[in-house]
Amino acid sequence: MKRTHLTILLGILLITDSCGQKKEKFTNGQVNGDVYSNDFFKISMPIPLGWYYFDNDGLPKLVEENIERLNIQDKEQAKQVEDQKENVKMIFALFKYKPDTIIEVNPNITLTATRISQYQELKNIDYAIKAGQKEMTSMNPNFSFDKDIYTLTIGNKQFKGYHAVYSADGLTANYEMMIANFDNYNLNITYSYKDTADKDRLFEIIKGVKIE
């Protein structure tokens, strides 16, 4: 069974209650050679040789396909996901294998931007994390979270992160979810994996991220 939709779910449902009015202008970023960069967030990330990425051209289709795979039956939950499309944007996704590869967990990194201009309380990252965890478990009880929230410096920016686990039908997938505030946006960097080797490789990529 394809499992890449799990990361998409986490990205979309990270922050709740974020419907708004006029959009602030920001860029999804672009790929030049083996580097993804985003001038709005002043961030760049190396792309390892042989890995697969989605940026402006492929992300909208990828997100829509994975929302369809969720097959959300509850009308209120479906409406909530639809409303969040205007405010929660996955801006980059990096996969070790082709996203349609039949594998339990395709190691990957995703960057998701959440517009919070009307919900200034979400600038408090601890609050944002707890709100996101509560909503995720309400929509899918197969997620669990470590109690501890850790601090990590990526580039020269301080992020707060936590470990999440999805466990169902014999599958266990791990997620490291790291969030930082950039004025009216929260930026989430998530990497998902099954074993320690993949976790270490993904973290090496994260250590190569630069933020001005």
Task: Report on the architecture of this protein.
- This protein is of the alpha+beta class.
- It has one domain (5-17, 29-211): 3-Layer(aba) Sandwich (Protein Transport Mog1p, Chain A), CATH 3.40.1000.
- 27% of the residues lie in helices and 34% in strands.
- It contains 5 helices and 12 strands.
- It has helices at residues 5-12, 59-70, 75-84, 125-139, 196-207, and strands spanning 30-32, 35-38, 43-46, 52-54, 88-95, 108-115, 143-145, 150-154, 157-168, 171-182, 185-193, 210-211.
- The strands form 2 sheets. Strands 4, 5, 6, 7, 8, 9, 10 and 11 form an 8-stranded antiparallel sheet that branches.
- α1 (5-12) crosses α2.
- The protein is globular and about 40 Å long.
Tell me the layout of helices and strands.
Layout: H1 5-12, E1 30-32, E2 35-38, E3 43-46, E4 52-54, H2 59-70, H3 75-84, E5 88-95, E6 108-115, H4 125-139, E7 143-145, E8 150-154, E9 157-168, E10 171-182, E11 185-193, H5 196-207, E12 210-211
Antiparallel strand pairs: 1-2, 2-3, 3-12, 4-5, 5-6, 6-11, 7-9, 8-9, 9-10, 10-11
Helix pairs in contact: 1-2
